[in-house]
Design brief:
Distance between the termini of chain B: 98 Å
Low-confidence stretches of chain B: none
CATH architecture of one domain in chain B: Up-down Bundle
Number of strands of chain B: 0
Radius of gyration of chain A: 17 Å
CATH class of one domain in chain B: Mainly Alpha
CATH class of chain A: Mainly Alpha
Oligomer: heterodimer
Order of helices and strands of chain B: HHHH
Largest sheet of chain B: none
Strand content of chain A: under 5%
Mean pLDDT of chain A: 94
Distance between the termini of chain A: 44 Å
């Protein structure tokens, strides 16, 4: 139930980011300076934390999506759906533990 | 003789035998597409996030020259084009399901879907055109914004 809610909420949020992301990337066709000015806003600390949240949403949606595929296509998927959910959460924690320090270092580390 | 009122709560008429309840195998195809595209998108988007946010200088290293450097290779053009199309269809189809679940009025559902379809077409066409018409070395660009492989102005 909660995995279903979280899958729906993260999918909804990711879709709206995707619309904005295609628009901001399209600025490469306007002028290099225009693109650089707008993508520059992605580099401030507040946006950096937003990106961490976005990646968290994507990572959960990805692993839980693979769990849904296993439940639907693997003969033992339904039987192990609860175990699979704990595996999803475990993979989520491991992936974010790999991503977050590196990303936060990029965002907050001076250079 | 008195008749008692129909005790049922008001509700939308159930689809009768004359009304189509499902549209062939469209929903089945949609269900299958979500799973197949989902698996492909995990690979495409994890690769995208790794190259753009983890490897190299991360988000702070993204600028016009970075994008131009990637799209100089056909591989990244195909990668991004496939990601754009699959993610937009997967996402728009997900939103269609959400609209069907929560928008109860027929008119609301219709207008939300019209809005969704319009956004889908606009973003997919725009994104596709950008990938195919991209010029990594546009004339008149400010100094220092172009990738190193562009000829000196």
């Amino acid at each position: 139930m909660w995995s279903w809610v979280a899958h729906r909420v993260t999918g909804f949020a990711i879709f709206f980011f995707l619309l904005v992301h295609v628009l901001d990337t399209s600025l490469v066709r306007v002028a290099p300076e225009t693109y650089n000015a707008v993508i520059g806003t992605y580099k401030n600390p507040v946006m950096g934390l937003g990106e961490a949240g976005l990646v968290a949403a994507i990572v959960f949606h990805a692993f839980n999506g693979l769990r849904i595929v296993l439940i639907d296509f693997w003969s033992k998927g339904v039987k192990y759906q609860k175990v699979l959910f704990w595996i999803v959460l475990g993979l989520f924690v491991v992936t974010m533990a790999g991503f977050l320090p590196r990303h936060l270092m990029h965002v907050f580390g001076g250079n | 003789m008195t008749t008692i009122a129909d005790p049922k709560a008001p509700r939308a008429p159930r689809p009768g035998p004359g009304r189509r309840v499902t549209r062939g195998n469209v929903e089945m195809a949609s269900w299958l597409f979500m799973r197949i595209s989902g698996v492909v998108l995990v690979v495409l988007i994890f690769g995208h996030l790794f190259v753009n946010l983890v490897a190299g200088g991360g988000v702070k290293a993204i600028d016009f020259a970075f994008v131009a450097g990637k799209w100089a290779s056909l591989g990244w053009q195909v990668w991004d084009l496939l990601m754009l199309w699959l993610a937009m269809i997967h996402g728009a189809n997900g939103l269609r399901t959400i609209i069907n679940d929560y928008a109860e009025k027929n008119a609301t559902r219709l207008w939300l879907k019209v809005l969704l379809a319009a956004s889908f077409v606009a973003v997919v066409v725009l994104g596709t055109l950008v990938i195919f018409t991209f010029d990594p070395c546009p004339a008149g660009a400010a100094a220092g914004t172009l990738p190193s492989f562009c000829p000196a102005p």
